[in-house]
Amino acid sequence: MSEATRKFFxxxxxxxxxxxxxxxxxxxxxxxxxxxxxxxWFVEIRGGTVRVSQQxxxxxxxxxxxxxxFDRMARGEAKPLPAWLRNDIxxxxxxxxxxxxxxxxAPPPGGxxxxxxxxxxxxxx
Length: 125
Description:
Helix content is 36%, strand content 28%. The chain is an alpha+beta fold. A 5-stranded mixed β-sheet has the order 3-2-1-4-5. β2 and β3 (49-53) form a beta hairpin. α1 (3-15) crosses α2. 22% of the residues are buried.
């Protein structure tokens, strides 16, 4: 498994409670393919508390991707919803969890929140 993937899931586990997911309950299993093997990551969200393991359990949503593409998402170079529309990832289960995933992935490299960007433009003048 790659370093970017491990860092992504480790960060989710360390963070513990995600304020943006406080009204969310559900489970997501990521099946990441590499070299004819599959790594499983299981993410459980209960009232905003996020727990991560590597169990291969039934989940509300199962997302499949190759490990190389998932690394791009973990680094913020790709987002889940556009990736699904391009068929770079596939899923089974509850679509709402795909939408919520956008909140868990890093922003694009060099990306900034729109309010920060607008404030910086006003200062530059």
